[in-house]
């Protein structure tokens, strides 16, 4: 019973952080490059994202190349490939 309540609290915290992150992203002024708090808000979004990753026990792997950008999550099922000289890590399905 106690462990069930503890698990519910953990899940509730994860959901609150996720909902907060979604709200921050939805309110972000994408079409206003002159927005005076652009960098501050991006830092807050990054921080919230890292917090969520920590709660979910996943490691974000930010890899940006000239051809494309992407966000990959690493776990034990990852595979490594070489793409035009760049190390690319992808989840194997």
Automatic annotation (TrEMBL):
Domain of life: Eukaryota
UniProt name for this protein: LTO1 maturation factor of ABCE1
Classification of source organism: Eukaryota, Metazoa, Chordata, Craniata, Vertebrata
